[in-house]
Structure formats: C-alpha cells, structure tokens
C-alpha cells in the first residue's frame, strides 16, 4: 500500500507539470497532500516494536517485560523467563479463547498454536479482542494479525480447520506431536492444551486427542445465559477425563444439536468471558511456572459471586479406552512416585532451619518472650533527668500486692479492734 501511494504522488507530480493551467494546480496540490497524509497514516499504523532477545528486569519505559520480571524479584516465581520455553495450544478462538490468547501473548509465552474454522462477524463485536475491520477474516488470521503486533517475540501457528472432521482431527494430532519448537518434550510438542470451544462434540475430540497423547489440558466454558462459567484441569489417568463425567444433558441421551433453535442464540457477556479467560490463564501460568496452587476445578457464578471448587477422580468404568489405559499407567507408576515424594520430604526436613531475614537494613531483631519476662526494666522515675523525681507514686507501686506477712498483720489488727468493740458493748 505504501508503494502504491508513493507511485500516486509521482503521478500527481507529472500531472502538475503536464497541466500548467493554474486552475488545475490547486486541485492537484490538494490530492497530493491527501496522498501524503495517507502515507503517514499507513506508516504509523504499521509501527511495531522490534523483537527482544532476552527478558530483562531492568525498570525502564522501553522494556516490555520489566513488570513481568518483577514477579521473580518479589519471590512469586522462581524463574519467569522460562515462560519462553513453553508451547500452549488454544482450541477455539472465540470469546474466551481469543482473550486467553491475548493474555498469554502479553505474558510472553514462547509459542501459541491457534485452532478455529469460523470467521469474524459483526455479531462477535459484543466480545473482546476482535475489531470491526476484521469482519470476514478467519478468526485464526485475525488473531495472528493482532497478536503479532502486540508481541512479535511469540511464535504463532494458526490452523483454520474443524477438528471434529476426520481430516481436521489428523491435522490436529500431527500439529500437537510436532516437537520442532522444543525437542526435549516427552509425549507431544506442547506443554498444555486449552479447550475454549462451545460444544460437547469438540470437547470430546480434544479429550480423545489428549488421552491418546497423555497430554495435560484445561477445559473452559461459559453458560448459555452468560452469567456463569468454569475451568477444569484434566490430567490423563490422574483426574477424570471429559468422558468420565459427561454433562447431564449428554448423559441423559439428548443430542445437543437438537437443543439449538433457528433464530435463537446463546447470550454472551464480555465481562463473564473475560473473567473465565483470566481464571484460565492464571491457572495456566501457575501450572507452567509452578507457583501457587493449581485449581483442579473452579466455577464462577456472576449473580452471587460464587466460586465453587472440587476435584474429580477418574472413572474406572470410563467409556474412553485411552482414558482406561492412562489410568493403568498412573496406578503402576504410583508407588515410585510416592517414594520419590517421601524422599523429598525427608530431605527437606533434614535441612537446618535458618532464620528468616537474618540481615536487614533496619537492624530488627527477634527475641524470645521469656527473655522479656526475665528482663529487669528500670522504673519510670529512671527516665527523668537527674535531680527530678515524681511527686506522685509511680504506677508500678500501685500494682504491687501486699506480701503475705503484711496481710496477716492487718488481719490481727482487725481482730484486736473487734475485741475492743465487744468489750465496750459489754460495759
């Protein structure tokens, strides 16, 4: 576009020389200025930051990672720069998936794989991420366009396909197995799969692929009324897969495709989808960077601000054969895993405890309470300048209780007084 505009400027210049009539000069000059403004606008719109080779914690305005690396300085994350080593696949670039992709891109994830077959519509403008000028583009192409401008350091791979078809499923599996980004990965070429689809059929396809690859994944969803949602961590063999505990409608034998009516669509709120996407990415960061507690299941009810949590074990009678295989592998590996965990606990207990904050710039020290009780504090009069004394007794003197001997003396005096009173009354 820039080249075409510059050619247009050259044409205007040639036209100006060819038409010496002053009446035409003003119109040509106006067109030239218009073309120049379009060139400057096009150049500004394509302005992108250059790639950053290494993440830095230096606090300067030009460092896009300074605030992320601060998590490492504050002790939340041991090594934040490791995020560049991870690959995450996002299936479904809709209301939740697109926002999750943007969050991970801004966090500096190493590689993102994006899957969707739909196009951007004006009906999607009630959600976040997509823009009106992207209408008609595939959601994957629109996502790559936006995300590459936000952070050029992230490796983006887009797949415009339907994973529920035979060919789409084969391509999906092949892309997950690709280890070109990090050959050291074990079962697949990605570290985590995020399911952000809106139907049961696509979820079951993701479930099947992850069970076959023994791939950990997270499922997410927003309710049809747009006021609740959830995220769920699924580890093949260790936690329930999506077929272990299917939704009630599906378990009842109802075909979900018959529930949709012509001209009726589900509600969607950018707020609910944004919250669910935030919870999903937060759980993803905790899982990848190993900090905090990863939620096995977290729900969200917007009407009551209710966040239920639970954990589901795998079903020994699951209908998915790959899930049963992963369960057997998990049971066989459990003794060795438990022994390793006990060894780590024993090693941690043998370590000598060192004082927290042994050196501090404020010279703060911690002493035992018993030492405070044994310490002889000076009386309040000692705090006065030399030559001055308190006129009234100090508060410490009023807190002293009489000794046992003094109490017995006062009791004897009372008995003597009572006998004297009795003698007077007798007279």
Keyphrases for this structure?
7-stranded mixed β-sheet, Rossmann fold, extended, 427 residues, ATP binding
Structure description:
- This protein has helices at residues 2-18, 22-45, 66-73, 97-107, 139-150, 166-177, 200-213, 248-251, 270-289, 321-350, 369-374, 395-398, 404-426; strands at 87-91, 111-116, 155-160, 192-195, 217-222, 228-234, 297-301.
- With 427 residues, it is of the alpha/beta class.
- It has three domains: 2-45, no CATH class; 86-248 and 263-340, Rossmann fold, CATH 3.40.50; 393-426, no CATH class.
- It has a seven-stranded mixed sheet with strand order 3-2-1-4-5-6-7, with helices on both faces.
- Helix 1 runs antiparallel to helix 2 and helix 4 crosses helix 9.
- One of its GO terms (molecular function) is UFM1 activating enzyme activity.
- Belongs to the ubiquitin-activating E1 family. UBA5 subfamily.
- InterPro entries: D-isomer_DH_CS1 (IPR029752), ThiF/MoeB/HesA (IPR045886), ThiF_NAD_FAD-bd (IPR000594), Ubiquitin-activating_enz (IPR035985).
Present the secondary structure layout.
Blueprint: H1 2-18, H2 22-45, H3 66-73, E1 87-91, H4 97-107, E2 111-116, H5 139-150, E3 155-160, H6 166-177, E4 192-195, H7 200-213, E5 217-222, E6 228-234, H8 248-251, H9 270-289, E7 297-301, H10 321-350, H11 369-374, H12 395-398, H13 404-426
Parallel strand pairs: 1-2, 1-4, 2-3, 4-5
Antiparallel strand pairs: 5-6, 6-7
Keywords: ATP-binding, Metal-binding, Nucleotide-binding, Ubl conjugation pathway, Zinc
Family: Belongs to the ubiquitin-activating E1 family. UBA5 subfamily.
InterPro entries: D-isomer_DH_CS1, ThiF/MoeB/HesA, ThiF_NAD_FAD-bd, Ubiquitin-activating_enz
């Amino acid at each position: 576009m820039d080249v075409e505009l510059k050619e247009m400027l050259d044409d205007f210049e040639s036209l100006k020389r060819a038409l010496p009539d002053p009446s035409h000069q003003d119109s040509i000059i106006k067109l030239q200025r218009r073309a120049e403004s379009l060139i400057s606008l096009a150049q500004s719109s394509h302005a992108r930051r250059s790639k950053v080779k290494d993440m830095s914690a230096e606090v300067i305005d030009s460092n896009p990672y300074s605030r992320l690396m601060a998590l490492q300085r504050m002790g939340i994350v041991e090594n934040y720069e490791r995020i560049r080593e991870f690959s995450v696949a996002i299936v479904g670039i809709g209301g939740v998936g697109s926002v999750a992709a943007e969050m991970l891109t801004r966090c500096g994830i190493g590689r993102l794989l994006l899957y969707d077959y739909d196009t951007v519509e004006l009906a999607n403008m009630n959600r976040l991420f997509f823009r009106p000028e992207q209408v008609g583009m595939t959601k994957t192409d629109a996502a790559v366009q936006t995300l590459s401008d936000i952070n050029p350091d992230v490796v983006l791979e887009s797949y415009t396909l339907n994973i529920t078809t035979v060919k789409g499923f084969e391509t999906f599996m092949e892309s997950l197995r690709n280890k070109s980004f990090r050959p050291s990965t074990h079962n697949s070429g990605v570290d985590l799969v995020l399911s952000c689809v809106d139907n049961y059929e696509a979820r079951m396809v993701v479930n099947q692929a992850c069970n076959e690859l023994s791939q950990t994944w997270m499922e997410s969803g927003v309710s049809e009324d747009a006021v609740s949602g959830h995220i769920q961590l699924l580890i093949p063999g260790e936690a329930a897969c999506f077929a272990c505990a299917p939704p009630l409608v599906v378990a009842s034998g109802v075909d979900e495709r018959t529930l949709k009516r012509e001209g009726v669509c589900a509600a969607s709120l950018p707020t609910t989808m944004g919250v669910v996407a935030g919870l999903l990415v937060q759980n993803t960061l905790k899982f990848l960077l190993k900090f905090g507690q990863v939620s096995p299941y977290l729900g969200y009810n917007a009407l009551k601000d209710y966040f239920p949590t639970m954990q589901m074990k795998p079903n020994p009678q699951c209908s998915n054969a790959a899930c049963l295989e992963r369960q057997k592998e998990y049971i066989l590996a459990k003794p060795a895993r438990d022994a390793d965990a006990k060894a780590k606990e024993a090693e941690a207990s043998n370590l000598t405890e060192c004082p927290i904050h042994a050196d501090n710039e404020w010279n703060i020290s911690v002493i035992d309470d018993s030492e405070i009780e044994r310490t002889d504090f000076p009386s309040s009069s000692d705090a006065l300048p030399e030559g001055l004394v308190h006129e009234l007794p100090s508060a410490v003197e009023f807190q002293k209780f009489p000794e046992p001997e003094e109490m017995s003396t006062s009791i004897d005096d009372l008995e003597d007084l009572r006998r004297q009173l009795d003698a007077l009354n007798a007279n």
